[in-house]
Amino acid sequence: QVQLVESGGGLVQAGGSLRLSCAASGSILSINAMGWHRQAPGKQRELVAGITNGGSTNYADSVKGRFTISREYANNAKITVYLQMNSLKPEDTAVYYCRSSTWGSNYWGQGTQVTVSS
Predict the structure, then answer these.
(1) How far is CA 89 from CA 3, 17, 34, 63, in A?
(2) Residue 104 three-state SS
(3) How confident is the model at residue 76 (pLDDT cuts 50, 70, 90)?
(4) Which of 4, 15, 16, 45 has the fewest CB atoms in 10 Å of its CB?
(5) Which residues does 101 contact at the CB level (< 8 Å), separation at least 6?
(6) Is the Cβ–Cβ distance between 82 and 21 less than 8 Å?
(7) 2 conformational bin, left if phi > 0, alpha if psi -120 to 50, beta if neither
(8) What's the pLDDT tens digit per position in 2-47?
(9) Is 77 exposed, middle or buried (0-12, 13-18, 19+ CB in 10 A)?
(10) Is 66 exposed, middle or buried (0-12, 13-18, 19+ CB in 10 A)?
């Protein structure tokens, strides 16, 4: 089992920045990738950014050049994944979810609201 706790959402004006954090604990040695997804009202959840154990990253075309995913290890007890979001646009408004993937399962955080005003 992996537990995920997200933080860092909020209200920001267009052009501003936010940093989301996701702290993973539990069976973290079984995690092979982590990522951030988002879901806007009336839309499907979509992948925003992902990072593998090897450090490879991928991004949705809509956020390339504006968002950066990174991670930090704390011994073997916790992994924190960050999503630095710059040059935010109103269309980035959504609930953002952290995801961790093991060989058998995906785990999700509770979600954090990001609202970008125009």
Answers:
(1) 30, 10, 24, 10
(2) coil
(3) confident
(4) 15
(5) 31, 32, 33, 34, 35, 107
(6) yes
(7) beta
(8) 999 999 999 999 999 999 999 999 988 889 999 999 999 999 999 9
(9) exposed
(10) middle
How far is the C-alpha of 24 from the C-alpha of 4, rounded, in Å? 5
Cα–Cα distance, 34 to 25 (Å, whole number)? 13
Across the chain, the runs of DSSP E, i.e. the strands, are: 2-7, 10-13, 18-26, 33-39, 46-52, 57-59, 67-74, 78-85, 94-101, 106-108, 112-117
Q: How many CA atoms lie within 13 A of 99 on its CB side?
A: 21
Q: What is the DSSP letter of 75?
A: T
The residues, ordered by sequence, that sit 6+ positions from 3 with a Cβ below 8 Å of its Cβ are: 24, 25, 26, 107
Tokens 């982590």 sit on residue: 34
Please state the φ and ψ torsions of residue 41, each to the nearest 5 degrees: -55, 130
